User: What shape does this take?
Amino acid sequence: MTTASHPPDGSPTAGPGAGRPVALVTGASGGIGEELARQAALDGHDLVLVARSRDRLDHLAAELERAGAGVEVLTADLQTDAGIGAVADRLTATGSPVVDVLVNNAGYGSVGAFAELSPDGLAGEITLNIMALMRLTRAALPGMLHRRRGGILNVASLASFLPGPGMANYSATKAYVLSLTEAIREEVTGSGVRITALCPGYTRTGFQERAGVRTQGLSGPAWQSAPEVAAAGWAGFRRGDDVVVPGIYNKISVSTIRLTPRPLVRKVAATSIRRLH
Assistant: This one.
């Protein structure tokens, strides 16, 4: 906490200092993103916290600062060009502490028949889940490769592995995240840069409420807490895993999906997702 950072509104917060790695986490105002920020802080990182909600980011920043981390708050709407650009600029800034780890966590999902969902909502989902992640990854990666250190943790989903009738757009965006992450990982092999995809299943966060998901019909073993998912994801990233699927239930699900004919996968997925409407 040896330097002061100035967010876009001009109010100073205690920022990342020299000598500690810096992790930038998007969607850090709640859920898995908030817990990943805590994991990074526990692992000795200073933080750049990114989300739309300044109040919630300030609350988390105060907590992490009390624990000894330097924290910079950057409010940005990653469904806009301006918001994506502001975070990309921070990732490439030369006058600020270098970002060693990028955590692309921001995202949301829509539930319902594709033909009945708002076109603008579907486009916004693609912008946040795909375009923002792609642009921030592209902004961060060259510097990491030049320094031969650092890494990117992209939060995908169990939905990455299967089509999701009733959540078609969300599943498609997360399939992109997983595919992109695995491809880039292969491209940077031997560079000293780690690239990992975290693929959680049902996780108790605010995601379900925002997506309009009903959760009463889902079995208990399917659920994990955000702290559990974040701890597994951060540990896998630190190990250099390519893909992290947290929880035995989810691991079995992925193995089953890979061995099951695709027409049957679609029907089972449709039945499961129908319970969420």
